[in-house]
Design goal:
Helix content: 25-40%
CATH architecture of the largest domain: 3-Layer(aba) Sandwich
Structural class: alpha/beta
Number of helices: 15
Order of helices and strands: HEHHHEHEHHEHEHEHEEHHHEEHEEEH
Largest sheet: 7 strands, mixed
Strand order of the largest sheet: 2-8-7-6-5-3-4
CATH superfamily of the largest domain: Type I PLP-dependent aspartate aminotransferase-like (Major domain)
CATH topology of the largest domain: Aspartate Aminotransferase, domain 2
Shape: globular
């Protein structure tokens, strides 16, 4: 990377960026002066693909024009609507098409996966996750432990970084599994830890869990659309994610779920009337499409992960994701990763050169991070600095007590955005 850290140098990088035209495909929030904000908050909510408005409008038009007939005769028929998302989700997760599905929300999907994969037996009943995990994950795990009559305070192992460290590293996870693996039934691990931005090797975590005899599940909310994933090859057991961050599916967008094919192949496709369909909770949309509307008493599961579906997809919440995934496929995942590394590396270089007093919590090694850097602001005025950045039109995210999260997203952020953020931060810290 060039050592030119000036505004002119940032603009030169943008002029040479082959992905720069994709920025025009997104709605850029504007400030009072009508100019685009410096938006570095895709780790919380991605920007709207302009094509999303067209897709949602088409669904509304088809609803008005066709009524119930839209299930079969809309321009994108509603019955198989989730299939419009399959190819894109398979690409961004490194999965086979029958291993991924768009459905529900992240935590609902996590509950469904825990119902299938958390099976405490004998001494093996504990669950391992990282300390400081996203609260919804912890709530879900604790509720399943309690559902089985177990004490969450005793059976939930929350692995914290070593004293004086901010991040864990895979070595700490492996050591914990070596020490407690015989007691652990399931590991739920982040692909990218939401607060620190630390990325984990899904394959390495999976291998460690399987050596200890544990199920390996993943929360990929901050990974999907951000870092390279190869869930099938990694042989992860399951994964869940939301689609409103890096996937730009919109607020409250439909979530997603992965189950490795070895598990769906092992599930009986048919159950007796009133019986439990193997090790999963069932709903009518998981029934095989050919006989779903026969409304019979016996469950016949769809092939692959589709059998885990509970209800028909929310069309208006899924349509924007079709627009976004099409952009991912057009831009190319490898090119997006290259630009992400360049943007984040440029952000780091500027911070170290101009604000050495700011601590960077996220690991320095590129394989151990995505496009997010978590910064520890010095002194007691960090929150005031965050609010002052907002007043200057710089949008990022604050996590108490002292973490500023910044994410230059390769689909719509520029090197100039990164430069302007660091310029504003530098001036505020001097003040």
């Amino acid at each position: 990377m060039s050592t030119d850290l000036t505004l002119e140098g940032a603009r030169a990088r943008d002029a040479a960026d082959a992905l720069a035209p994709f920025r025009a495909r997104f709605a850029l929030p504007q400030g009072p002066d009508g100019e685009p904000l410096t938006y570095l908050c895709g780790h919380s909510l991605g920007l709207e693909p302009l094509a999303a408005r067209t897709l949602v409008s088409e669904e509304l038009d088809d609803w008005a024009r066709l009524g119930v007939a839209g299930h079969e005769h809309a321009r994108r028929p509603w019955i198989p609507y989730h299939e419009n998302l399959t190819a894109g989700l398979a690409a961004v997760t490194g999965a086979r098409p029958h291993e991924v599905v768009a459905m529900n929300s992240l935590t609902v999907n996590l509950h469904l996966m825990l119902a299938s994969f958390y099976r405490p037996q004998g001494a093996r009943r504990r669950i391992l996750l990282e300390a400081g995990a996203f609260s919804s994950d912890r709530h879900a795990l604790a509720s399943h432990l309690a559902w089985h009559g177990l004490d969450p305070e005793r059976e939930l192992i929350e692995l914290a970084p070593p004293a004086g460290a901010d991040t864990l590293g895979a070595e700490a996870l492996e050591a914990a599994l070596d020490a407690h693996g015989a007691q652990i039934a399931l590991v739920l691990w982040p692909g990218v830890q939401f607060r620190t931005g630390e990325a984990f090797d899904v394959a390495r975590v999976t291998r460690a869990a399987r050596r200890a005899g544990c199920i390996a599940g993943f929360d990929l909310a901050h990974s999907v659309g951000n870092v390279p994933l190869a869930l099938h090859e990694a042989e992860a057991d399951f994964a869940v994610w939301c689609s409103y961050k890096y996937l730009n599916g919109g607020p409250g967008a439909i979530g997603g779920c992965f189950v490795h094919e070895r598990h769906s192949a092992a599930q009986p496709r048919r159950a007796h009337a009133g019986g439990i369909p193997g090790a999963r909770l069932a709903g009518w949309w998981g029934h095989e499409p050919e006989t779903r509307f026969a409304m019979g008493p016996r469950f016949a599961g769809s092939p692959g992960i589709a059998a885990w579906q509970i209800s028909n997809p929310p069309i208006l919440a899924a349509a924007p994701l079709i627009a976004s995934l099409a952009i991912f496929l057009e831009a190319g995942l490898a090119r997006l990763r290259d630009k992400s590394l360049a943007l984040t590396g440029y952000l780091e270089a500027l911070l170290r050169a101009r604000t050495p007093q700011v601590g960077i919590v996220t690991p320095e090694a590129p394989p151990r991070r995505g496009c997010q850097l978590s910064l520890r602001l010095p002194g007691a005025g960090g929150r005031a600095v965050f609010e002052a950045l907002g007043a200057r039109g710089v949008v990022c995210d604050w996590r108490a007590p002292d973490i500023l999260r910044v994410a230059p997203v390769p689909l719509y952020n520029r090197f100039e955005d990164v430069w302007r953020f660091v310029q504003a931060l530098t001036e505020l810290l001097r003040a």
